[in-house]
Design brief:
Blueprint: H1 2-24, E1 27-30, E2 33-37, E3 43-48, E4 54-61, H2 75-82, H3 94-100, E5 105-110, E6 115-122, H4 126-139, H5 144-162, H6 165-177, H7 191-196, H8 199-209, E7 215-221, H9 225-236, E8 259-265, E9 270-277, H10 285-297, H11 303-311, E10 317-323, E11 330-337, H12 342-358, H13 363-379, H14 384-398, H15 404-412, H16 415-425, E12 431-438, H17 447-463, E13 478-482, E14 488-493, E15 499-507, H18 520-527, H19 537-546, E16 550-555, E17 559-567, H20 571-583, H21 589-608, H22 610-622, H23 636-641, H24 644-654, E18 661-666
Parallel strand pairs: 3-7, 8-12, 14-18
Antiparallel strand pairs: 1-2, 2-3, 4-6, 4-7, 5-6, 9-11, 9-12, 10-11, 13-14, 15-17, 15-18, 16-17
Helix pairs in contact: 4-9, 10-13, 10-15, 10-16, 11-12, 12-16, 12-17, 18-21
Length: 671
């Protein structure tokens, strides 16, 4: 019996081990990038970088200040401070010492939505970093004496923040911009709440939020993925699932009117802040907003720095940034300036925001900004801790730790996207602005005054748009003008190739024909470019050839006219030639009799082409009773007998200046 069961037991043991290993196997989501979700809900991301000689271990906890109850304001941040203050096996200072003894660094930070504990050191010691962080997070003692000492540290930090004008102004901006969402509350909490916390409060909060389904372990560096996963399972695998999903957060209602606030303090400079509500990071608009932040505030080449600081000299310092967290965020600007110039500065800043709605960004500027946004992102990945931070952030914000989609969206941003997003978010009703001024100043300014100032800034932005520019055109650099005689002129500047194309378009074509005139516009399209009252067809052909150009007529279902192409240096004489043809076409009898047999030959060729006949008959049946049902080449009997005088009458009836659209595209200037 034992001989019979022995092999089976061995097989069963092997099967169980194999099954366990399969359960722990990682999903390969990119070369050397692995993600695993343990049975208890904990997520592990490992990125192998062979030869890097360094490693970072980060433990992300999906809890931040937004998940705190009203009586817990700042407790997440306080716990972050307390985590390194001792465990049953490591006393105060020994947790940091265990990492620093091998030349590493250990630290932590708290945000609105997550808390991160991290250590970076030689890749030979990655196990030590993982063990130390696991010990700190799982077994912190939260000693009462240490807690009181750390509370004093945090209270001092709160006091220092309140003494810093820029931080005080920023926090007030968040509190005014957000009326419902907990982004309005400071991560650090308040003096009253922090002073009230007890060890029991901390343990209760930890029990609710420090659960494996809220844990993300990220390890990046010269590490073996399988060994890392095994060690994480050994350190965290025994944790049971908490079974407590994070509470839903109150959503911010749309803002329907501008908001303004004013603070006063013992300062010598004024500080300005403003924000527009925008979107969450998962929204495709987030990438466009990052590009807009680069256009407006991306260094000394950016618009706010150049125009508001350098040209108008209204500020000493100015910055713009896009805050796109898990829920809808803000586009923010802060500035430092002379005490009495903040209204001028605010108007100038808003003008630059509003200009993005009406004037397309130049391709060169857009490409430069996109390169810089991408390079700043990529440079942050030079070190292992930067890569781990990126992986953790993207996993929490999007559910995918890879940055590929985000970078693709940055590269794909077009000038039309910038205008669309600017129009969507940069409205006066969506604006919150505030100023911190010296206590001796009491400026008479309120939300109504802000609304008026924003309206003037928007008007000023519109005035900067060049005359005729079509801001919402699918094609860039397109201008529309209405001339005194009624001609609609469209100009698109495109200096990429030294050529120019001209199109003169009138309503007409097949739609303007009847059975008795079917073929007239096909005839006109051929006859129209054959000379003017001063030029014969031969002279016209030579003149066009001398300019290395082309000139031809066209007709369609709804239009007819002329089209021409010239080298850019011949634009003016080429345009004059098009003008002369339109104003005084020869419509010569002799040229007409040369063209007539060619048109009849085309009709005969049509009869010999089965596809052409099928298409003609399809249109005849489909558009029965409508001019679209006529033959685009005309009726043979009409083409054969149509007199030139009738062609001239049809031309003069349709070729009126108030019906002409003249389009010019190429290496030209609209103005």
């Amino acid at each position: 019996m034992r001989k019979t069961l022995g092999p089976f037991i061995v097989f069963l043991a092997f099967f169980m081990v194999t099954t366990a290993m399969q359960a722990a196997s990682a999903e390969t989501i990119a070369p050397h990038l692995f993600r695993t979700r343990l049975d208890n809900g904990l997520t592990v991301i490992v990125k192998e970088i062979p030869g890097s000689k360094a490693a970072t271990v980060q433990l992300w906890v999906k809890t931040g200040s937004v998940f705190e109850r009203a009586d817990e304001a700042g407790i997440t941040h306080l716990i972050e401070h307390m985590i390194f203050k001792g465990t049953p096996t490591r006393g105060p200072g020994e947790i940091a010492g265990a990492i620093e003894d091998v030349g590493g660094r250990i630290n932590a930070y708290t945000s609105y939505e997550y808390t991160v504990y991290h250590a970076t050191l030689s890749s030979r010691h990655w196990r030590r970093a993982l063990d130390v962080l696991a010990d700190a997070v799982r077994h912190s003692l939260f000693d009462a004496a240490e807690l009181e000492r750390e509370k004093r540290v945090v209270l001092e930090e709160i006091g220092m923040r309140n003494d810093r004008p820029n931080i005080r102004l920023f926090q007030e901006l968040m509190a005014r911009a957000y009326q419902a969402h907990p982004y309005r509350l400071p991560v650090i909490g308040s003096e009253a709440s922090v002073a009230s916390f007890t060890r029991a409060d901390i343990l209760a909060y930890m029990k609710r939020h420090y659960q494996p389904e809220n844990f993300l372990v990220v390890v990046v560096g010269d590490v073996p993925e399988e060994a890392v996963l095994g060690r994480v399972r050994a350190l965290f695998g025994d944790l049971p699932p908490g079974g407590r999903p994070q509470p839903s957060l109150p959503q911010e209602p749309p803002q329907d009117s501008p908001r303004f606030f004013r603070l006063a303090d013992d300062v010598s400079q004024s500080h300005l802040a403003l924000a527009f509500h925008t979107c969450a990071f998962s929204d495709p608009d987030a990438a466009v907003l990052d590009v807009i932040a680069g256009i407006l505030g991306g260094g000394e080449s950016a618009r706010l720095y150049h125009r508001v600081r350098d040209e108008k000299r209204l500020v000493y310092r100015i910055d713009a940034s896009s805050f796109t967290p898990r829920d809808p965020g803000l586009m923010e600007v802060t500035a430092t300036l002379e005490p009495d110039r903040w209204q001028e500065a605010l108007a100038a800043v808003l003008e630059e925001f509003f200009l993005l709605k009406y004037l397309p960004v130049e391709d060169a500027e857009l490409d430069r900004v996109k390169r810089n946004v991408e390079s700043e992102f990529v440079f942050n990945l030079e070190r292992v801790e930067g890569q781990a931070r990126m992986l953790g952030s993207f996993e929490f914000l999007t559910g995918d730790p890879r940055e590929d989609t985000y970078l693709q969206r940055i590269r794909a941003v077009r000038r039309e996207d910038v205008m669309r997003v600017a129009r969507k978010y940069f409205t006066p009703a969506n604006l919150t602005a505030g100023v911190l001024v010296p206590a001796v100043m009491v400026p008479a300014f309120d939300a109504a005054a802000l609304e008026e100032l924003a309206a003037k800034a928007e008007a000023a932005a519109r005035e900067r748009v060049p005359s005729g520019l079509v801001g919402d055109s699918y094609l860039p650099d397109l201008y529309r003008f209405r001339l005194a005689n009624g001609v609609t002129l469209l100009v698109r500047e495109d200096p990429s190739v030294p050529t120019v194309a001209i199109g003169a378009v009138f309503p007409g074509g097949l739609r303007a024909e009847t059975d008795k005139t079917n073929g007239a516009f096909a005839f006109l399209a051929e006859l129209l470019p054959k000379g003017t009252k001063d030029l014969s067809a031969r002279q016209m052909a030579l003149k066009v050839a001398d300019m290395a150009g082309e000139l031809a007529g066209f007709n369609g279902k709804n239009t007819f006219g002329l089209k021409a192409d010239f080298l850019a240096r011949f634009f003016e004489p080429g345009l004059e030639l098009v003008r002369d043809v339109l104003l005084s076409p020869a419509l010569d009898e002799n040229e007409a009799e040369k063209i007539r047999p060619e048109l009849l030959d085309q009709l005969r060729y049509q009869e010999d082409s089965l596809p052409a006949v099928a298409f003609r008959e399809f249109n005849r049946i489909l558009f029965a009773g409508h001019p679209y049902g006529l033959n685009s080449l005309g009726r043979p009997e009409v083409v054969r007998e149509l007199p030139v005088a009738e062609l001239r009458r049809i031309y003069e009836e349709h070729a009126r200046p108030d019906r002409l659209v003249l389009a010019v595209v190429g290496d030209v200037k609209a103005a």
